[in-house]
Amino acid sequence: MQSLSLLNQLGAKIDELIEKIKKQEEELNALRQANTTLNAQNEEKDIQIAILYDELSAKDKGIQGLYDKISDLLS
């Protein structure tokens, strides 16, 4: 009788652990999905930054060209 009680308790603990593992797996999957989404957003932001940097660089070259022309005119 006592061994049956111990087996029942052990079975209950095993079921409890299985449920915890299932919940942790669900949480892990949700975190993986969130991580994938964040990585994609980060990639998109990196591309936007690169585009803005290229635009800024082009404008800087244009301003430098104007500055050089003005300097030549004033010389």
UniProtKB/TrEMBL annotation:
Q: Which UniProt keywords apply?
A: Coiled coil
Q: Extract the Pfam families matched here.
A: ZapB (PF06005)
Q: Which InterPro entries match?
A: Cell_div_ZapB
What residue ranges carry the coiled-coil annotation?
7-48
This protein's record includes keyword Coiled coil: yes
Q: What is this protein called?
A: DUF904 domain-containing protein
Task: State the organism named in the record.
Answer: Helicobacter pylori UM038
